[in-house]
Design a protein that fits this description.
The protein is an all-alpha fold and 363 residues long. It is built from 14 helices and no strands. Helix 2 runs antiparallel to helix 3, helix 9 runs antiparallel to helix 10 and helix 11 packs antiparallel against helix 12. It is globular. The N and C termini lie far apart (51 Å). Keywords: Membrane, Transmembrane, Transmembrane helix.
């Protein structure tokens, strides 16, 4: 009996090790990570030139829209990217307005997660899905802001999105000379379970993770819902579990890397170049191994969210806060993933959710 249990345990460990170390094939051209690095790094270089790194960081967040560029014909990919830019601008605006109403932060970000997840699922937006939309809203909601700065900051993020579209246009023209585009796939029928029910569960999980972060009085709670969303977006319970392991282990190693980088004598130019280098590595690695990419995603997000205040305090506080935020977000995301992929939960909760929707909607 004991030997049988031991054999099962060893087999389980081998299976987990296999999922952790599997490297996926990739046909992503090197030009894509390079262009993505420019989209997120050029705004920082401009901000460093004018000695306003805080402005460059906001535009750099908008430059992340480039990552959503599909491999479709030129007209389709540009329309898609401009729609992504509009969505990121809207999410950032919602987040920055919610900043002035602390009691509404949790419901607003939860609602943003629901709506963005619905849109991404309806239009079959690929990886990273709704992640960067919610990330933009979360960072905006917890960034120090005055009322008169709202139009300025929303405009800066919009300029970052426009720069991403410009870089995407030049990149697409150059790349389409080397390889043919893929046809734009037709949208399959939108089902209630996939578009509505899943999005509500995801949004509620994001809201719960943020509520827990606020109850615990975390200093940087914006990373908790982002970690939750990154985990719960797995296509299956197996994918959710594997993604959670990748996220936790990758973050732990990434924090060691961040610790080393923060110990360097950083200034505005070195931070800008580091963001460019990290972005290039991430986009080269993320399709091959998510956990390895998270090692570099961790310091990148620290720079994007806190670069303007780095050097004003001990990096130990940033490292400890990020680790706890990630663990809390992954725990809630894993619990949400169990609910999302539980047939019993889907049947019971889905039936109740359908009752809230008028019959004339036909869902």
């Amino acid at each position: 009996m004991r030997r049988s249990l031991w054999n099962k345990f060893v087999a389980l460990l081998k299976l987990e090790w296999h999922h952790l170390t599997t490297i996926n094939p990739s046909d992503r051209p090197w030009q894509m990570p390079f262009a993505a690095a420019l989209a997120s790094g050029v705004p920082l270089l401009v901000g460093a030139w004018f000695d306003r790194l805080d402005y460059g960081l906001i535009s750099s967040l908008g430059g992340m829209a480039f990552i959503y560029l599909p491999a479709t014909p030129l007209h389709h990919r540009m329309v898609s990217l401009m729609a992504v830019g509009f969505g990121m601008t809207a999410c950032y605006a919602f987040g920055i307005i919610a900043h002035f109403f602390p009691l509404l932060l949790t419901p607003v970000l939860g609602l943003v997660a629901i709506l963005v997840s619905m849109v991404c699922r309806f239009y079959r937006v690929g990886v990273p899905g709704s992640l960067f939309f919610v990330m933009a809203a979360s960072i905006a909601a917890y960034s120090p802001t005055e009322v008169l700065q709202v139009p300025l900051k929303v405009g800066l993020l919009t300029m970052g999105c426009l720069l991403a579209a410009l870089i995407a246009f030049v990149y697409s023209i150059a790349l389409l000379r080397l390889r043919a585009s893929q046809p734009a796939p037709p949208l399959p029928p939108a089902t209630f379970d996939f578009v509505v029910f899943d999005s509500v569960v995801i949004g509620v999980s994001v809201g719960i993770s943020l509520a827990l972060a606020q109850l615990l009085h975390l200093e940087r709670p914006y990373w908790v819902p982002v970690s939750c969303l990154a985990v719960i977006q797995g296509l299956s319970l197996r994918a959710v579990w594997t993604r959670q392991l990748h996220r936790v282990l990758g973050t732990a190693l990434g924090l060691l890397l961040a610790w080393g980088l923060l110990a360097l004598p950083l200034e505005k130019w070195s931070i800008s170049l580091l963001v460019i280098a990290l972005s290039f590595i991430i986009e080269s690695a993320v399709v091959r191994h998510y956990g390895f990419a998270v090692i570099f995603i961790t310091p990148l997000t620290i720079f994007l969210a806190d670069a303007a205040s780095l050097g004003q305090g001990s990096p130990h506080a940033v490292i400890e806060a990020r680790l706890f935020d990630t663990l809390l977000g992954c725990a809630v995301g894993l619990a949400g993933g169990f609910c999302l992929h539980s047939p019993t939960f889907r049947e019971v909760a889905g039936r109740q959710l359908r009752r809230l929707i008028p019959a004339r909607f036909g869902v």
